[in-house]
UniProtKB/TrEMBL annotation, chain A:
One of its GO terms (biological process) is organic phosphonate transport. Pfam families: PhnG. This is Alpha-D-ribose 1-methylphosphonate 5-triphosphate synthase subunit PhnG. NCBIfam families: PhnG_redo.
TrEMBL record, chain B:
GO terms for biological process: organic phosphonate metabolic process. This is Alpha-D-ribose 1-methylphosphonate 5-triphosphate synthase subunit PhnI. It comes from Bauldia litoralis. Pfam families: PhnI (PF05861). The lineage of its organism: Bacteria, Pseudomonadati, Pseudomonadota, Alphaproteobacteria, Hyphomicrobiales.
């Protein structure tokens, strides 16, 4: 598959895409990486909870909605970049992979590769899925009109 | 008082083995997979996530399988599991205005910007059983429109807040919200605590209470201004980073109820609001939650408190189905000592009563 011209995303966007990449996508990219530098695990991946919050009325004061399972990990490249991985669900392997790619993304020598090999294709898949969701929702768009009832006419 | 009993180990072990066999059912049929439950019993999974107060589809599906489809038992399993995990922190508040909506309707505003999207709904179906589902026939793919919905749909309540006829959301001041999983419930409860309790409350209980307000027990004249369902990004703040980190997306259902309000000593005549927000696709629950939220605001709005749905201590103390089932179902555990004591007391009272009765009759003679 030929790649689109390299799409610049900042780290926040890259992490948001990585968090939604599936294990197969992350594993395939990792295996394709020929010059993986030494990566040290700073914090072993672990499973825990994040309390999801909502806002009263959608825009008011915060309240606690319920918890979400989250896996997280932290790694460091020999050159010092610290990568973090936070993903929903109980998948410590995925969290570790995301942390590695986040670290690599910060390393000038690897950013382009991470963008091309992981962030861009996953981001395209996600955009396609969203477009499909939106298109299917749009097909159910309804235009209600009010009828004038007999006694009002 | 409950006094512990000993014994019965073998019987209990065998009962659990029998339970496992019954759970499996007819072995000539293939076992159901967790993946199948996740994909095909999605609304049961959503209910277990909402009332289990833990967003994890596979875990909820596993709980449903283990509980043989008993959703309250599955919710209990999920609640028990969550206590084994550490809390990493809290998310930033979800922005439902940025939802990728699968469904979004309004019963009050016909032509709202972004339109009315029916989405995957049971509404307008004829509620006739479909014999075709007896077989594993092919399902037609859903129709996709060439003009998809735009990115982000404004919340109806934001669109109509300007005139002052609809109560605004209130300020999003960043006070730490109450957390009933950390501190015991205290009354009077703030709206933050009430919404947390309602979000994890039993759907049936909240549905009945919401219904009671419609039937006149704390009438609030509700309209469903907007119901939306879809995925929202969830982000956390990570120490040392100057940007929020996305964890992925959660599916939620949101209900904005607006309620006619004639005004009171403390509030002008305007549409007041009730709010519902629930994990997953859980529209009935979100609507019931919004009705209960509004009814519970009676004190704040200076309304007469006359009905059960307005009594926060009553509602919040009984909305949790794990607590409720624990207390109701503990009655079937051995109470032999307890009962024996009651029996002894009753025998004593009875003999005293009979002695008095006899003495009375003798005196009368």
């Amino acid at each position: 598959m030929d790649h689109q011209p390299e799409q610049k995303t900042d780290r926040r966007q890259a992490l948001a895409v990585l968090a939604r990449a599936n294990s197969a996508e992350l594993a395939a990219a990792w295996e394709a990486l020929s010059d993986a530098p030494a990566i040290e695990t700073l914090r072993d991946s672990e499973i825990g909870l994040v309390m999801a919050r909502g806002r009263v009325g959608g825009g008011g004061a915060a309240f606690n909605l319920g918890e979400v399972t989250v896996s997280r990990a932290t790694v460091r490249l020999a050159s010092g970049e610290v990568g973090i991985g936070h993903v929903m669900g109980r998948d410590t392997g995925r969290a570790l992979m995301v942390a590695r790619f986040d670290a690599l993304w910060q390393s000038p020598g690897h950013r382009g590769w991470v963008e091309t090999a992981v962030v861009a294709p996953v981001s395209q898949r996600l955009a396609k899925a969203d477009a499909e969701t939106r298109a299917k929702a749009a097909a159910t768009r309804v235009n209600f009109f009010t009828m004038v009832r007999g006694e009002d006419a | 008082m409950y006094v512990a009993v000993k014994g019965g180990e073998a019987a209990i072990r065998n009962a659990h083995q029998l339970l496992a066999e019954k759970r499996r059912g007819d072995r000539s049929l293939p076992a159901m997979t967790v993946g199948q439950i996740v994909e095909q019993l999605t609304l049961a999974v959503d209910r277990v996530m909402g009332e289990g107060s833990l967003y994890d589809r596979r875990l909820a599906a596993l709980a449903i399988k283990q509980a043989r489809g008993d959703l309250i038992e599955a919710i209990f399993l999920v609640r028990a599991y969550r206590t084994t995990l550490p809390r990493f922190g809290a998310s930033l508040p979800l922005d439902t205005g940025r939802m990728v909506a699968e469904r979004r309707i309004s019963a009050t505003f016909k032509d709202l910007p972004g339109g009315q999207l029916l989405g995957p709904t049971f509404d307008y179906t004829h509620r006739l059983l479909d014999p075709a589902l007896e077989d594993d026939g092919a399902t037609e793919p859903a129709v996709a429109d060439a003009a998809p919905t735009e990115d982000g749909l404004p919340r109806v309540t934001d669109l109509l807040a300007d005139a002052g006829l609809i109560e605004p959301d209130g300020t999003g001041e960043d006070a730490e919200p109450a957390d009933m999983t950390r501190e015991p419930m205290a009354f009077p409860a703030g709206r933050d605590l009430r919404l947390q309790a309602l979000a994890r409350g039993d759907e049936g209980f909240l549905l009945a209470l919401g219904y009671s307000t419609q039937r006149g027990y704390a009438r609030t004249h509700p309209f469903a201004a907007e119901i939306r369902m879809g995925e929202v990004e969830i982000e956390i703040a990570v120490p040392g980073l100057d940007f929020p980190v996305s964890l992925g997306r959660v599916a939620v259902t949101e209900c904005q109820m607006v309620n006619q309000f004639k005004g009171s000593g403390v509030a002008p005549p305007q549409f007041t609001r009730g709010y519902g927000l629930v994990f997953g696709h859980a529209e009935r629950k979100a609507m019931a939650m919004a009705l209960c939220d509004r009814a519970l605001r009676a004190r704040e709005l200076g309304e007469d408190q006359t009905a059960p749905a307005q009594d926060e201590e009553f509602v919040l103390s009984h909305s949790d189905n794990v607590q409720a089932t624990g207390f109701v179902e503990h009655l079937k555990l051995p109470h032999y000592v307890d009962f024996q004591a009651e029996l002894d007391l009753l025998r004593r009272l009875r003999s005293e009563w009979e002695a008095r009765d006899e003495a009375g009759r003798e005196a009368a003679e």
